[in-house]
Amino acid sequence: MKLDVEVLRYLSKDDFRVLTTVEMGMRNHEIVPAELISLIASLKHGDTYKILKNLLKHKLVHHDSSKYDGFRLTYLGYDFLAIRTLVNRGVIAYVGLQIGVGKESDIFEVATEDGTVLAMKLHRLGRTSFRAVKSKRDYLRHRSSFSWLYLSRLAALKEFAFMKALEDHGFPVPKAVDCNRHCVIMSLVQGYSLVQVRELQNPEVVFETVVGLIVRLAEHGLIHCDFNEFNIMIDDDEKVTMIDFPHMVSVSHRNAQMFFDRDVECIYKFFAKRYNLSFQDDADDKNSAESDIDEAGRPSFSSISKSSGCLDKELAASGFTRKDQDNMKKFIEGGADNEEDEDEEHVSETHENSLTSLGFFADRRSGRANE
Ligand code: ADP
Ligand code: MG
């Protein structure tokens, strides 16, 4: 693992002071006026400008002079703020290779001072459909300027809260270690995602386990909503771990049945296609009085959800509030309509290059394919 948190020292305390000031300013300004940054940072006037120039050089802020002289944070700038906080808290000490890239996240290996390797997920809501965020300004009217920071922070908060709760209830999930801004630190799952694994010794067992997880989640009041071969990790002993929780909803959600059936369908389809599992006989094998199975032999949402537990309600009482949930839901549901929208103001298109050029992260992915 490349050891690069030293690079944080490229940036002085004052650099971070100015960066934090830009972050704060974005609560009320799409582009934070340079004058305001200078005022709040309360450094010597010339110093703030010198620092902003340095931050700009490292692509931690973006300069915009279309209306007035101002700056906004880039994803990279936000990454640095989160990583610095986590380093200062003693949660991580090193940042290593990128091990995963999702539609709305980047995953890196990180390590603690004593060398324990963990995973760091940086949420990037709006990366693929930033325009969708903009088009939803009605509900983010007062926050449009920092909507992507805000939504990514919510996604991280939600993921962290759900991961912790699921772990407490004995679900096979990564251990949630800490969370700051849009960044979640969790244990590193050994193995590969199901989609990367070419062969399984016991596909039937894995299939049963995975479907069992969807059912058990619903029994606890929750639906994953993105339960598929990309979000199920499997190790050499074919032990299953589920990941990726920002989309989870309660069984009381108005579309719960559809989400549940979609999760189930994904798994059935995948195992039928890749492992030629046939489910035709299931319905006959099961006792028809067994209420949790429908006529097709698949888990039946309506009967499972009748006796659901209330993990969904516990979570609503956690740091992730109902209002947070609503804001995210509006974004996700609204964003889904615009998913194909490519964004000209793509916030992170040069992101990876910037990370690499700073030496902050290693410059290649580890290529964890099974084959
Ligand atoms: P996204 O929301 O962008 O899909 P995921 O949480 O699914 O993000 O992560 C993307 C990929 O990163 C996963 O498919 C997996 O390969 C890898 N990954 C995510 N979390 C971990 C982890 N805790 N340990 C190991 N690999 C992980
Ligand atoms: Mg995923």
TrEMBL record:
Transmembrane regions: none
Biological process per Gene Ontology, one example term: maturation of SSU-rRNA
SUPFAM superfamilies (UniProt xref): Protein kinase-like (PK-like) (SSF56112), Winged helix' DNA-binding domain (SSF46785)
InterPro entries xrefs: Kinase-like_dom_sf, Rio2, RIO2_wHTH_N, RIO_dom, RIO_kinase, WH-like_DNA-bd_sf, WH_DNA-bd_sf
Cofactors (names): Mg(2+)
Segments of skewed composition (Acidic residues): 336-346
GO function term, MF aspect, one: metal ion binding
PANTHER family: SER/THR-PROTEIN KINASE RIO2, SERINE_THREONINE-PROTEIN KINASE RIO2
Protein's recorded name: Serine/threonine-protein kinase RIO2
Annotated source species: Linum tenue
